[in-house]
Design a protein that fits this description.
- It is a single chain.
- The chain is globular.
- The strands form 2 sheets. An 8-stranded mixed beta sheet has the order 5-4-3-2-1-6-8-7.
- Helix 1 crosses helix 3, helix 6 crosses helix 15 and helix 11 packs across helix 13.
- By secondary structure, the chain is α/β, with parallel strands linked by helices.
- The protein has 15 helices and 13 strands.
- It has 2 domains: 139 residues, Nucleotidyltransferase, domain 5, CATH 3.30.420.40; 190 residues, 2-Layer Sandwich (Nucleotidyltransferase, domain 5), CATH 3.30.420.40.
- Bound molecules: adenosine-5'-diphosphate.
- The site of adenosine-5'-diphosphate (ADP) has 13 residues, from helix 10 and helix 12.
Length: 413
Amino acid sequence: MSVSPSNTSPATGSREPAPADPRPAILIINCGSSSVKFALIGTRRETLILSGLAERLGSPEATMSWKDGEAKKAKSLPGADLIAALHEMIGLLPGNVQVVAVGHRVVHGAEAFSHSVRIDAEVLASIERCSALAPLHNPANLAGLRAAMTVFPDTPQVAVFDTAFHQTLPQRAYLYAVPYEWYQTDGVRRYGFHGTSHRYVASEAARRLGQPLESLGLITAHLGNGCSAAAIEGGRCMDTTMGLSPLEGLVMGTRSGDIDPSLQEFMAARRGWSLERIMRALNRESGLLGLSGLSNDMRTLVEAAEGGHARAQLAIDVFAYRLAKSISALSAALTRLDAIVFTGGIGENSKFIRARTAESLQVLGVALDPALNDVHGEPPSGRVSQTGTRLCLVVPTNEELMIARETLSVLNT
Ligand code: ADP
């Protein structure tokens, strides 16, 4: 996460004087099956006041760790559940802060949600209906929503969906070429994920370039543990690499990305594996981890490849080639391409991966400037490409800030 540190303006880096009256802030909650990530962002200058993570909830090993300004702290909370963790977190909030709203990350909004919404009973029921499409994520997000409504009964709650930004995809981009009734009756289509990040970096790229987002064609590549890329024109998402689930598209830490679907039947016949076992392999044992046999972590792989580890090098080669191939394919969704934007832990920090990817994008006119790539982009634009070549930028993502902005804008409508 890369929100600016407490009391420091992201725009100017200047210190904010401590105001005497309560400081309005948005609490951001991202709830997993046994964990909750939280962040508190002041609304006046978009400052990160507090951030943290409670994990292994419901077990004797439950812990909470948090960052208060520059200080990192942790405590164990044996047996704490989600509600207990939220109460514990309230104890961490500075006395002069007033939580004016809670913004929740919700993974799947299907076709029901193309925007962020204020939570009410109908919205909760609708998110519940979307759970069939995200059985691992939506129930956990709903548990977070309900817990926060219990702990903050008088505070407005807003849901911000990972899928919402991709709801502008045209039919030709979101339909699979399978029987059309699958879409009509079962909702089988491409939804896309990481929408909050793609939307944030697209608007931040436009700000850095000093051009209105409405005038730009962009390809954004979010490369973290999960990876996806999106084609964005006029601020609207036109296509993206993830699909019905976050398994489709790019090579990821442990996910395969695109495969031939007949591979599943083939492996079932070869190994006698159940569909569940095969899906576990595709979601948890594939990607960088599966190819390298070493790690799902790109830092480890880059170090190992530099030390001569052949399969780490192979995993990197497949990752970068598939990324370049997807970026080229996404250009078909655009009428203009003003910049390719790298973000996420790998996109922001790995000069090596950006350089390898760029090598396979020469036909698109990409040529990185090694010196700018080494420093992860020329300030203030984040440009890593040579002058006169296809513009490539590094733009750190900030999903928490985007959720805070969305929450505030829902409150103000
Ligand atoms: P998440 O998707 O969980 O938010 P991040 O966006 O933090 O993940 O990205 C995690 C990935 O970023 C890991 O593969 C990690 O190795 C990689 N990463 C972070 N820093 C570097 C670096 N300096 N060089 C290469 N990879 C890096």
